[in-house]
Amino acid sequence: MTVTLVIGTQWGDEGKGKVVDYFSKHADYVVRFQGGNNAGHTIKVGEEIYKLHVTPSGVIQGKIGVIGNGVVIDPESLLKEIEDLTKRGIKPKLLISDRAHIIMPYHKILDGAEEQYLGDKKIGTTKRGIGPCYSDKVARNGIRTNDLLDKNTLDVLLDRILPIKQKIIDAYGIDIHLNKKEILETFANYGNRLRQYITTTHIELNTAIQKEKNILLEGAQGTMLDVDFGTYPFTTSSHTIAGGSTIGIGIGPKHINEIIGIVKAYTTRVGQGPLPTELLDKTGTYLQQKGHEFGTTTNRPRRCGWLDLIVVNHSCMISGITKLAITKLDVLSGLSKIKICTHYQLDKKTIDYFPANIDDVAKIIPVYKEFKGWKEFQSDTKQLTDLPKEAQIYLSFIEKETKVPIALISTGPGRTETIEV
Length: 421
Ligand code: GDP
Ligand code: IMO
Ligand code: MG
Prior knowledge:
Among the domains are: about 100-195, Adenylosuccinate Synthetase, subunit A, domain 2 (Orthogonal Bundle), CATH 1.10.300.10; about 265-405 and about 415-420, Adenylosuccinate Synthetase, subunit A, domain 3 (Adenylosuccinate Synthetase, Chain A, domain 3, Alpha-Beta Complex), CATH 3.90.170. The protein has 14 helices and 20 strands. The chain has helices at about 15-25, 75-85, 105-120, 130-140, 145-150, 150-170, 180-195, 200-210, 240-245, 280-290, 310-320, 330, 360-365, 390-400, and strands at about 5-10, 30, 40-45, 50, 65, 70-75, 95, 100, 200, 215-220, 260-265, 265-270, 305, 305-310, 325, 335-345, 350, 365-370, 405-410, 420. The strands form 5 sheets. It has a 10-stranded mixed β-sheet with strand order 9-7-5-2-10-1-11-15-19-20, sandwiched between helices. Strands 14, 16, 17 and 18 form a 4-stranded mixed β-sheet that branches. A two-stranded antiparallel sheet has the order 3-4. α3 (about 105-120) packs parallel to α6 (about 150-170) and α6 crosses α7 (about 180-195). It is globular, with a radius of gyration of 21 Å. Bound molecules: guanosine-5'-diphosphate, 6-O-phosphoryl inosine monophosphate and magnesium ion. Guanosine-5'-diphosphate binds next to α1, β3 and α12. Magnesium ion (MG) binds near residues 39, 40, 41 and 296.
């Protein structure tokens, strides 16, 4: 029996979908524990490409997908995902926690309104209502999956919540009336359509652990978007780090056997906020074009930069990462020189940690080690030792500096373009 956790170590989009799909072959359950449909996880099998937002990536391999209590669910988006997958011949085996929170229409309205109000200080959210939904969860004003199953319960909750939300919407000067009857009918209907999946997933998973099943936990976003340890306030609103996983599904931390941190071979970020190694030159454009760095959820161009080991080490420390999976190594092929950031300079001092203060982060000057580039290699290379020598040197430097062994190298988006070490 193993419980394996896969998380992103950077600003999201590290290739979690690809890696989780790859490891799903060993899993009985694949479980999402945080985030919502702000995530976009891509899986490529042969010529088929799947872009999943809240459905766990393991469903593509026919595994049971669990949406844990820590996830926020937009029912309309989830039902569409189920429908789209079913049309493509994959009827997802889903279990949804009875405690997961629901993204309501006013969450999406307020996400947009807050961003607009912030103007050039905006966070650059995905506008999926994620922040407002998590805020309501903590403020105890949320609506959960189990509430959708009983129309009377939902009715009472809407009576309590909607007037407050209407006041806030009015205060923003937005001309939208929250129609209670319409919301009640729509969400009770979503409840009826999701009823078959909603259950006590925490009991199911703890029973599965007792029965020695294999469980794969799939993170969304990445450490630098974690609400505590990321570039706050330019983060998402959930805990993307290892600590978030057990809270987000209801298992004890001791059950986790392996924590795999995914490291994109360079760095990307979507939305606002600091990115110390950002390349605003032709190399940045090269990485963006060659790596097809455009958001899976919003299609916004991703900002690109060199690999930042201060960021990766910060993630390894905070999440106790036991193995690394390096993705998109192929994208770096063809460059004559490649750099890795090993330290920062802040106010003329050399530092080797990620500062908390966002103004300090903005002042950081990255210190780089330069590596010789390598030529294109076959994306179906199966042995580490068959990779170009310079690529092997690049990888061993990452291992040496993080003190975490590399377990997997991804050399292309496809399932088979993978080297297990
Ligand atoms: P996630 O959010 O972490 O699941 O990552 P995304 O799916 O948003 O973005 C990663 C993108 O890179 C997707 O388009 C993947 O198909 C693609 N990808 C994943 N691994 C590799 C790789 O090793 N090489 C290349 N070229 N593309 C990859
Ligand atoms: P995956 O799982 C990359 C970013 C947004 C924005 C910030 C807050 O595909 O890696 P939110 O809508 O969550 O309030 O936005 O977080 N963001 C992501 N960036 N990958 C993601 O998910 C992201 N999910 C949110 O761009 O900067
Ligand atoms: Mg993504």
